[in-house]
Amino acid sequence: MSNAPEAGTEITYLEAIREALFEEMARDENVFCLGEDIGAFGGAFKVTEGLLARFGERRVIDSPISEIAIVGAAAGAAHMGMRPVVEMQFIDFIANAYDMLTNYVATARYRAFLPCPMVVRGPSGGYVRGGPFHSQNPEAGFLHTPGLKIVYPATAADAKGLMKSAIRDDDCVLFFEHKYLYRRVKDVMPAGDHVVPIGKARVAREGSDVSIVTYASTVWKSLEAAEQLAAEGISVEVLDLRTLAPMDEEAIFQTVKKTNRLLIVHEDTRTGGIAGEITARVSETCFEWLDAPILRVTAADIPLPYAPPLEDYVLPQTADIVRAVRRLVAY
To answer: Rounded distance, CA 176 to CA 130, Å?
Structure first.
């Protein structure tokens, strides 16, 4: 028995991740989960609900409250041929395991030929009034570390397919799950063994006037903005990166060459955010294709407030994207 929905049923982003965990644990006995309260409690958001009953406490392990210990234990298990899936109760606290991930896990294969087939996953992002300790998007803090892969899906189907790919990958994958999308976004899962390759972006909406490159929650805000702008006769293409490391440069360059105008949208803060890296790559490779400056819509450079009006002001909104696209078109 499992908590996995029947085939053909529309399921949420959260259920899609859970379904991937059920399927991969059933497929490969070396896959196991560990983290804080993931067993009997089923995780803070119930992503791992039902796993303990199905697979037992040897493969669904409740850990102490020590992120560095959890990641260290997972790394050791990965070296020995296991495929651990670590849950950060909130991704904000991955900071406590930064040393283990960047100094040890990311370099293990290079230093000592030690494989690290492990996933570190957890709820990320804002728009949920979680305040500064439970709303962060720390993906850019790991982007510059060679040896780590970073995934941040926007749809339920991608959440499942990319989780399966992450578990099967022979390197450490940081898997960011946007908590605002957990129960709001739904898909009918494709039949069979649904796997989405790491490192491949997808065109979420075709367009010809402006390209928006984005990921995670702001994919949906970008699509809302594109719909509004279509009524004004502006055709917006939306590229969902899905994977941040490795980044699908060719998909980015292709959409820039198609529309000649680029807006980068993400929920992370502006300074040091991934938008800056994308801007640099496009400027180096596609400068002659640009008919306007590259623009960014991001969060402000402050800790995320708890108060709803303040959070809404700090985080990117659909209206911010609409204004930026209009500016690009008018340039």
So the answer is: 16
Q: Compute CA 149 distance to the chain's CA centroid, rounded to the nearest angstrom.
A: 11
**pLDDT-flagged residues of the chain (< 50):** 1-2
Among the listed residues 134, 144, 178, 266, the single catalytic one is: 134
Cβ-Cβ contacts under 8 Å for 66 (sequence gap 6 or more): 96
CA pair distance 129, 93, nearest whole angstrom: 17
Q: Is 88 helix (H, G, I), strand (E, B) or coil?
A: coil
> What is 131-179 written as a DSSP string?
-TTS---TTHHHHTSTTEEEE---SHHHHHHHHHHHHH-SSEEEEEEET
134 is an active site residue: yes
pTM score above 0.85: yes
Number of other CB atoms surrounding residue 28 within 10 Å: 13
Going by C-alpha positions, the residue among 172, 161, 177, 151 that lies closest to residue 88 is 177
> Residues 115-140: pLDDT tens digits?
999 999 999 999 999 999 999 999 99
